[in-house]
Amino acid sequence: MASLTFKNNPIETVGNFPEVGQKAPDFKLVKSDLSEISLSELAGKKVIFNIFPSIDTPVCAAQLKKFNEAVANIDNTVLLFASLDLPFAFARFCGAEGIENAVTTSDFRYRSLAESYGIQMKGGPLDGLYARAVLVLNENQEVIYSELVNEVTNEPDYDAALATVSE
């Protein structure tokens, strides 16, 4: 459990957010084309894993756009986004914004991230949705960067996350 804020009002999350050095828990998510993806399918690649409340908010949209631009020329790295939005919302957004470097996924079907990644918010107006977080995983799916954003309406530290990819 973590203590966060949403518009400066206290909220909590359920479970424990992965820390640097831990193996990332596996998951099963639904991509925009309704096919499924699990973490085990990404073995051998670095993963920049972004979790957020909803693509239909300005901060979440900015997060997707900024990371999409930043990874355009990074080899052997997958940019993965997840929320509880339906896959159709991601398809609409990415099509309208020209997002091509990201794998967008929904956890609506399995909620496999909620407790195992410790990001489901409890309390506040977004109760039940996922908090804003960024993980960077190495090729062995070990966490090399971990940020659970303290204020859900703030953007993550892009530079710090991207710096770990190039190490």
UniProtKB/TrEMBL annotation:
Keywords: Antioxidant, Disulfide bond, Oxidoreductase, Peroxidase, Redox-active center. It comes from the Bacteria. Its EC number is 1.11.1.24. It is an enzyme of class 1 (oxidoreductase). Thiol-specific peroxidase that catalyzes the reduction of hydrogen peroxide and organic hydroperoxides to water and alcohols, respectively. Plays a role in cell protection against oxidative stress by detoxifying peroxides. The active site is a conserved redox-active cysteine residue, the peroxidatic cysteine (C(P)), which makes the nucleophilic attack on the peroxide substrate. The peroxide oxidizes the C(P)-SH to cysteine sulfenic acid (C(P)-SOH), which then reacts with another cysteine residue, the resolving cysteine (C(R)), to form a disulfide bridge. The disulfide is subsequently reduced by an appropriate electron donor to complete the catalytic cycle. In this atypical 2-Cys peroxiredoxin, C(R) is present in the same subunit to form an intramolecular disulfide. This is Thiol peroxidase. It comes from Aliikangiella maris.
